[in-house]
Amino acid sequence: MSEPLVSGLVIVDKPQGVTSHGVVARVRRLAGTRKVGHAGTLDPMATGVLVVGVNRATRLLGHLMLTEKGYDATIRLGVATTTDDAEGEVTSTTPAGHLADEQVRSALAAFVGEIEQVPTAVSAIKVDGKRAYQRVRDGEEVELKARPVTIHELLVHEMRRDGDCLDVDVSVRCSSGTYIRAIARDLGAALGVGGHLTALRRTAVGAFGLDAARTLDELGEEFTMVPIAQAARQTFAAVDLTEEQAASVRVGRRLDLDLATASALFAPDGEFLALYEPSSSGAKPVAVFVG
């Protein structure tokens, strides 16, 4: 691997049935380094964009996780499960075939905007130091608090009746921390019939979409990364510095810069140096990637 690609992002099209940790393990072998992590877990049932960081780019992941995400999903109305998806045990069945399309569209419209959402009980959220999903597996009752999330867009594509069930294909653009399974659960509750996800595909994480993603088999044939400088420019507002400013950034000093938002700072030769954010006294470092 050439020097400019030693640190970067690998955009993986995760297959169904593989855990996010399993993807990280595969990338570790392909990249020849242990320093690999991912931005935002995808459930084993889900497919699609999983952003993986290699070497120094792992420090970008926490910032990438805060970006907007896109999903395609299928919600099945008429059946509720313990996990709010098809991998859980059925907890109730209620005929939903009678629901009119407009009823479903109207109910889904209520989820668009800034809402309070209770995460699914089998999420990776920690409760007193232990993952919620592990507590559920251990037979514990888990009650999570509602959290503010933003649904920027929720489009309904198709509805199909299958016996007493109604399958609804949707696309969602949402803030980080949104649970699509919880939308399925809450839609079913709002309509009085129960609901869960039968399919979920992440289509985008910030600036990285399926067009940039590669399957694990493709990566095995040709391992490609988005260099860290390119990834930073695609994800954040970019600021090109003078040599003097770059020298200050390398040692983590504040800069007399008027930033509108968190920004990626670059040396005159294009090297990615740091993430800075606005403050009351100029720009301050969030994370410095050189030193």
From TrEMBL:
It catalyses: uridine(55) in tRNA = pseudouridine(55) in tRNA. Its EC number is 5.4.99.25. This is tRNA pseudouridine synthase B. Keywords: Isomerase, tRNA processing. The active site is at D43. Residues 181-222 form the tRNA pseudouridylate synthase B C-terminal domain. NCBIfam families: TruB. Residues 28-180 form the Pseudouridine synthase II N-terminal domain. The gene is truB. Responsible for synthesis of pseudouridine from uracil-55 in the psi GC loop of transfer RNAs.
